[in-house]
Amino acid sequence: MSREASNPIKNKLIELDQRMANMEGELAKIKESLSNIPHTLEEERKELSIHREEFNKLQGNFQEISRSVTGFNQKTINLERRMEVTKKNLSSGTVASILIFTILFILSLFVRA
Predict the structure, then answer these.
(1) What is the percent of the chain with per-residue pLDDT over 70, rounded to a whole number?
(2) Is residue 4 exposed (0-12), middle (13-18) or buried (19+ Cβ within 10 Å)?
(3) What is the mean pLDDT of the chain?
(4) Does position 68 have pLDDT exceeding 80, yes or no?
(5) What is the DSSP letter of 1?
(6) What is the rounded distance in angstroms from the CA atom of residue 96 to the CA atom of residue 108?
(7) Helix (H, G, I), strand (E, B), or coil: what is residue 113?
(8) What's the chain's Rg over C-alpha atoms?
(9) Which of 12, 67, 92, 101 sits at 20 to 30 Å (Cα–Cα) from 108?
(10) How far is residue 71's CA from residue 23's CA, in Å, rounded to a whole number?
């Protein structure tokens, strides 16, 4: 009976030994992944700084485009105003020309008569 009693104890010891071996393997994996964290963080920092630089460049380009569009809109508004002034001047110039022609025509009729 002592053999039978020691056999389950042996089985339990073997099972516990296997569990300990598995735990040691898992612990080794965890230690390895923890040791890789600083390298991973450093790589992520480098990538983040690269992305920040790209973002800053794109933001600068966007601001430049925004300024260009604003300038273009101002120029367009100025050109539209000039066109309106030119149209008014043209119509008033035409009226003035017709009046002067009419006055000269009437004067020429009086001079001939």
Answers:
(1) 94
(2) exposed
(3) 86
(4) yes
(5) -
(6) 18
(7) coil
(8) 47
(9) 92
(10) 69
Please report where in the chains the tokens 């001047």 appear, as a residue: 89
Q: Which residue has the tokens 């300990």?
A: 20
Position 63 confidence tier, pLDDT thresholds 50, 70, 90: very high
Distance, CA of 6 to CA of 14 (rounded, Å): 12
Structure tokens at 95: 């009226």
Give the whole-angstrom CA distance, residue 15 versus residue 25: 15
Report the distance separating Cα 113 and Cα 107, nearest Å. Answer: 10
- The overall pTM is greater than 0.85: no
Residue type for 102, please? Answer: T
* Buried residues in 14-39 as b, exposed as e (16+ CB within 10 A): eeeeeeeeeeeeeeeeeeeeeeeeee
What are the tens digits of pLDDT across the range 25-58?
Answer: 999 998 888 887 777 778 888 888 899 999 999 9
Rounded to a whole number of angstroms, the distance between the first and last alpha carbons of the chain is 160
